[in-house]
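Tutorial, part two.
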Amino acid sequence: MSNARSDEQNDTSGGGGARGSAMGTAHRGKVLGVTISAALGGLLFGFDTSVINGAVDSIQHTFDLGSAAIGFTVAITLIGCAVGAWFAGQLADAWGRKSVMLLAAILFIASSIASGVAFADWFLMLWRFIGGLAIGIASVIAPAYIGEIAPAKLRGSLSSLQQLAITLGIFLALLSDAALAGSEGNALRELWFGLPAWRWMLLVGVIPAVVYGILSLSIPESPQYLLRKGRKNDARAVVRDVTGAIDIDRRLDEIQDSLESERRARYRDLRGKALGLQPILWVGIGMAAFQQLVGINAIFYYSTTLWKSVGFSAGDSFITSVITSVINVVLTFVAIFFVDKVGRKALLLWGSAGMFVGLVLAAVSFSQAHVSGSNVTLPQPWGVIALIGANLFVIFFAATWGPVMWVVLGEVFPNKIRGLGLGIAAAFNWVFNFLVTLLFPVLSQAVGLGWVYAGFALFAALSFWFVFSALPEVTGLELEDKSKLEHLHRQRAEA
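Running the prediction step on this input gives:
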């Protein structure tokens, strides 16, 4: 083992020799491959939450649902997400990251099949809830695992891959919806085996779920979990073969020290003087809440219906939704490239400002809407301005708050409470996602889209204040860095 360690030090140290360069590339390739495999949970996350978009109107027609009922049918997945996220950290600490990823894949597969063949609205709701459990689990496990497996200097970029996977999942969902609905945008048309297109929209989720399950079996366990279970040799192998640490023993000692004298975290470990919870937990909850309160999922879950109100045909609305999702994918690369260079806090502040401008444009545009019953239309040029505002909002969200929020949640909590803290913060993210999704169609009818988007703009402004005043910067620090934890607690106390 000492020879391996010596080779490791020689191969990854400076000097720029060919052998050292090759080993560095090999380690980067390994950690990238492992990260991509884990991040595929994000693809299912994006796919399963957005695939309902193209099926909403058809489900409402098939089961004869009112606006509140269809809103709940869409949103019940998010209740499952909150429950799954809440318990994911505890399950991961008890069973391991890999086992919980596999559980999520199995639940994804079952949910996709059962939802696609649903014979009643309650049955569809049940399996959409179970699918939500899987999404919630994946939303916690991926950032936790990537944060533990990735080197500090690459952690921001690698953690951002989860959001890239989420945006790709959204894109693939909307693309498959558009393809299955056809050029006329008819999700009720019959396809294979006599099933309407909207059922195939849900059934196709089996494919990425199977891929995720297979890949979850191929990745190593995180070194933090292995050391917690006393499997030091296995942890050493992961640190040596995947992370490419120069001093393996020192890295293992850092992790071990952070876990020393540590029992499994319990909820009482989260208690503090700040309204009953540790201040850093409130930071995580606040980040999770603001990411949803700016209204991003009102864009993606109801985008097809929304763009019909702007004046697009059904077919054009599907295409416009796909274009919006492409923007979401492409701009995520901005975060991947800059999050470790510019820093988490700076990107989030720019994102809040840009989202505010886009949402104000959308709010002003929809305040000019003509409403006739359930039909909403926008006169020109307000339809174009609304489209510009919505896409400007998506641009800034995709480049900042979309990926960076998950990066922050994966690294801001101390080791002892990371599983619980991340799970609780993610659960709040899904709770607010649920509230926005459920209330968006109701409030849109009650007060109008102009006021709804004005509310989203207000939360974008508040998110700027929250990041500026409450969020510490942890860019480039190892998760086990004691100075980081002291810095966090000192800033929270001063706040």
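The CA atoms of residues 26 and 244 lie 9 Å apart. In part three we will examine how such features are distributed along the chain.
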